[in-house]
Amino acid sequence: MTRPVHGPTPVDHRAAIAVETGRLVAALEDADLTTPVPSCPGWTLADLDKHTGSVQRWFSSLLHARIQEPPRKREVDLRLPERQEEYADWLADSATVAAQAFAATDPDLPMWAWGVDQHARFWARRMLFETLMHRVDSDLALGRHPTVDRPLAVDGSDEFLVNLPFATSFAPNVAQLRGPDVTIRFHATDDEGNWLVRLRPDGFGLDANPDAAETADATVHGRAADLLLLVYGRLRRDAAV
After folding, report:
1. Which CA distances in Å does 8 have to 15, 113, 125, 152, 160?
2. Are strands 203-206 and 182-188 parallel, antiparallel or unpaired?
């Protein structure tokens, strides 16, 4: 499957991770970490913090190892503090661990990845949107309206849709995304984002360089930020208009 070309504003994934982590840390510093996170059922803000920092440290270990095949184990020294009051500082330090891994790794270095892009840069891009979406989750849990910069939203929707067909190993329900050769277009009304998803009997994928004039069986129009929240299940489908 070829990645569609949308011509979005380039995103510095490494720098954006630091920014999004900082926003999440700021949200958690004065919050009650026992607060439930509705968009992650069963989680509290403490769980959200722990998961995000753990992912950053896990991905960083993969980068340092220059993995060339699926990892056989997930053990990594998380250095998670015993007191939840220290979780925010620990999360901030997790972003530092990630920055050190990025500094030591050429983004164009060939590496194994579970998605399309078999280079080290895959892990920085994936880490960014893992962090960003959980920052959104914290906003929702705290009753705030989440905002996402337009370039990040376009890149995030692209990253999600391009890699989703390869996520069945940890998201088995993806295998149920199939249909009798029907198409769904996602159109960002405030940017050039334009994705054409094709559901086939054997699965689904994206059409490369979709023709904007081609009629789809269904089309979802919305701002880039709303489309990102929609595909991640953080926004109802009738709200992305």
Report:
1. 17, 23, 15, 9, 15
2. unpaired
Paired tokens of 166 = 């390869």
> Do residues 136 and 233 touch, judged by C-beta distance below 8 A?
no
Residue 205 is predicted with a pLDDT of 85
- Give pLDDT, residue 7: 45
Residue 21: count of CB within 10 angstroms of its CB: 27
How many other C-beta atoms lie within 10 A of the C-beta of residue 2?
A: 11
Q: Which residues of the chain have pLDDT under 70?
A: 1-9, 208-209, 237-241
Residue 197, helix vs strand vs coil:
strand
The total of other beta-carbon atoms located within 10 Å of residue 231's CB is 20
Please report the DSSP string for 161-172 in residue order. HHHGGG-TTT-G
Q: Which two tokens stand for residue 161?
A: 């849709």
